[in-house]
Amino acid sequence: MEMGxxxxxxxxxxxxxSKLDAKDTxxxxxxxxxxxxxxxxxxxxxxxxxxxxxxxxxxxxxxxxVPSFKETYQLWRESFGMYPWPLVKRVKRCWDRLKNxxxxxxxxxxxxxxxxxxxxxxxALENILKVKLPLPTRLLYRFCDGQELTDxxxxxxxxxxxxxxxxxxxxxxxxxxxxxxxxxxxLETKEITDQLGFSTTxxxxxxxxxxxxxxxxxxxxxxxxxxxxxxxxxxSAGEMIPCVPNALISPMHDMNTGxxxxxxxxxxxxxxxxxxxxxxxxxxxxxxxxINLFPEESPLCSTAVTNGVQYxxxxxxGEEFVYESCTPLSSSQGSIEGAFTFVPGRLAxxxxxxxxxxxxxxxxxxxxxIF
Length: 371
Known about the structure:
The chain is an alpha+beta fold. Helix content is 33%, strand content 18%. It has twelve helices and twelve strands.
């Protein structure tokens, strides 16, 4: 005697449907009234919303409450129906991870993130700048329209320290990179490309920049999907270097595949990975906090201990000593090693003989990802 799916008990049917993805769950619900009831169970759609969208409460894409998880899932699919769903899930997961890290560790920067842009706003940028944004970048802006930085929010005499990409400081060179909102993308792209003498048909847009007086600009090539950063020869020679390995970038404008990944998405995902893994950390200077891009974990840095010294402890219970520097290289790679001379006690009143503390060799080379 043959049995169909409908001949099974409710528990068995629910157990089977719970193994399906959202698309197949909808398909099963069209077979019969009994299966439609089983496929409408709120627990099933809670699971789909959790797995696909990272949602634990039923809200729509702009954060408004929704009566059920099934309706929630439907609203999200409708709102992003013009994009490949696997790419939507990936971009949302990237933003969720970054926002979670910022909320827990750097809430003042989290507060600068803008709500997502609309399709109308994205299309307006494309029409003004005569470009077609890669799909991953369009989606990144759909979830978050960059940062809103003002002089009275995390500002210093040199500019904001709240860039979610972060920066570094050595001597009088202060850099802190933020993601630009669409309106600023338009303004900066027009101004900078005019200064650099780019062609009016240039497909570059500026998506990130330093908020300090040191100009550092990140250019997205909307045709190839690569992200570039200007070098110190940007103004004189228009020189830029890629920020992401070219081999990782795949087609950006095909709506029929979920495999697109432009440099902007890869760049942001790598940045989030470094934050989550503690490779880069927050640094505090006085009352100002910022994300510091100098890596603090191997293989991008080194550690050496001499006579028990890891860091110079200047005062009992005080903060660690931080020394940041930079040097130009005439070749594409190099390294640094050496030693610092320590004096027990004070220079004016030494408590023992001076001794050298080793600085382990660490590489100086152009990394795969540039921030």
